[in-house]
Design goal:
The protein is mainly alpha-helical and 328 residues long. The chain has nine helices and three strands, in the order H-H-H-H-H-H-H-E-E-H-E-H. A three-stranded mixed beta sheet has the order 1-2-3, with helices on one face.
Length: 328
């Protein structure tokens, strides 16, 4: 069993157990705040089930209908999870707002507080575990599920604090007010998760990956690599795809071009933080490139070398050779 599958199964089983524990706490106390936490746990279970299927699907090999693999389903999974969180938050806000106006009695708050506190600690450990595994495995789904559990932890902590305050002051309507405030936080968390997943589905460039690639190339640049431009990234679940243009001396034969491109591919996958599939287009140099070209033994140079252009993410993502960027 893969690390990702193991992590999501652990998360799913924990979510079921903690959901049952929170509903027991609600039936004991009748607290709206605890019901808020229990309702969010239902979302955890549903989202965890969908996440498990998406991870199973994302690990399937490429086929004729999916030449880039099935990894993008993880973004869809994170989107669904975000929408479920948003819905849960809105429902919680409306129900709790009603109970601020028409409060109802609560009881056994100490027992409920202990149960919610314990479930919050368990979610904290599980959430950090999922985020860590998700980062190591480059899984959007695991990171989304981990962040969701951390959100659950924060709401549990707020609810515990509120329940203690209610027991000290005996102001019952504070229970519903606390639930409303937690509901707004849940809606905000759902929005952030949804926004990130939509970015992935729309092939939003991964700026962190671009920075990693540019740093590796800049530190290990070879003289024939005159410039790098039109660099773009895509993520398909755990897989990363990078395409870019590299300007090489126009007189290089096909074997020399292939050698330089292969070295770039090897360099990024050897020294980068993530494995990636590269598609590199070779451009021939132009006379305007001479003033920043390191090929000192070039027999067809039009003008002397003046200065090196330091590659940065802002430069390499543009679809222009560097002399067109007005950097010299």
């Amino acid at each position: 069993m893969s690390v990702k599958k193991k992590a999501i199964i652990i998360s799913l089983l924990l979510s079921v157990v903690l959901m049952l524990a929170k509903f027991v706490a609600y039936f004991i106390t009748g607290s709206n705040a605890i019901l808020t936490d229990a309702a969010e746990s239902i979302v955890n279970v549903i989202a965890g089930s969908f996440a498990f299927y998406s991870i199973y699907l994302s690990t399937q090999p490429r086929d004729e209908n999916h030449p880039y693999g099935h990894g993008k389903v993880e973004f869809f999974s994170a989107f669904v999870e975000g929408i479920l969180i948003l819905i849960a938050g809105v429902v919680i806000i409306f129900k709790s707002s009603y109970n601020i106006i028409y409060p109802h009695a609560v009881s056994e708050l100490l027992t409920g507080t202990l149960i919610i506190g314990i479930t919050g600690l368990i979610n904290l450990v599980a959430g950090l575990y999922l985020i860590n595994v998700g980062k190591n495995e480059h899984s959007v789904t695991l990171q989304a599920d981990g962040k969701h559990l951390l959100t659950d932890t924060y709401t549990s902590a707020a609810i515990v604090a509120g329940l203690i305050l209610i027991q000290l002051t005996n102001i019952i309507w504070l229970d519903s007010l606390l639930s409303v405030l937690v509901g707004f936080y849940i809606v905000y968390s759902g929005y952030k998760l949804t926004r990130g997943s939509v970015g992935g589905l729309m092939d939003e460039s991964d700026l962190t990956l671009v920075e990693e690639v540019v740093e590796v190339l800049q530190k290990n640049r070879h003289n024939p690599w005159i410039d790098v431009h039109n660099l773009r990234t895509q993520q398909y679940g755990p897989e990363f795809h990078i395409d870019c243009h590299v300007t090489l001396p126009y007189y290089f034969n096909l074997n020399e071009v292939h050698k330089e491109i292969s070295q770039i591919d090897e360099l990024i996958n050897k020294n980068g933080f993530r494995k990636a599939e590269l598609f590199i287009h070779a451009d021939p140099c132009l006379p305007e490139c001479c003033n920043y070209c390191h090929m000192s033994a070039c027999a067809v140079r039009f003008e002397a070398f003046k200065k090196e252009i330091v590659w940065t993410p802002e430069i390499v993502i543009k679809n222009k050779k560097h002399f067109e960027n007005e950097l010299l």
